[in-house]
Amino acid sequence: MKMRLAIGLGGLHLSLLSAVVLSSLSAPASAQGTNQGPVVKPKRSVACPSGWSHPDGDTSICAPQVSSSPKIYGKAESESCAAGYYEVYRVWCSTKRP
C-alpha cells in the first residue's frame, strides 16, 4: 500500500514538474525583453536599436541610454517578434516602432 502511494505521488510530482518546465518553454518572447542592462548583439555588424548605444565603444553589446529606453531582445532573422514587439534591423525586437 505504501509502495503504491509512493509511486502515485512520484508520478504526480513528475507531472507537475513537467507542466512547469513546458509552460516556461512556451512563454512568450515578450518575457525576454529588457531595458535594464547590456544586451549582446545578435550580429556585430547591425546597429543598436533606437534608445540604445554601444557602452564604452564596445560594438558587441548594446546598452540602454536612459531608464525609459524601449525593451529589446535579439532574434534570428527567420524568427518573428512576440506580440507587442516590432522588428528592427531584422535581428532585434523592440517595444518601440522603428
Q: What does this protein look like?
A:
It contains one helix and six strands, in the order αββββββ. It is of the alpha+beta class and 98 residues long. The longest helix has 24 residues, at 2-25. The protein starts with a helix and ends with a strand. Mean pLDDT is 80; it is low at 16-30.
User: Roughly what fraction of the amino acids lie in strands?
Assistant: 15-25%
List the helices and strands in order: HEEEEEE
What number is the mean pLDDT? 80
Uncertain segments: 16-30
Distinctive features:
1 helix
Short description:
The chain has one helix and six strands, in the order αββββββ.
What's the structural blueprint in terms of helices and strands?
Layout: H1 2-25, E1 39-40, E2 52-53, E3 61-64, E4 72-74, E5 86-88, E6 92-94
Antiparallel strand pairs: 1-3, 2-3, 4-6, 5-6
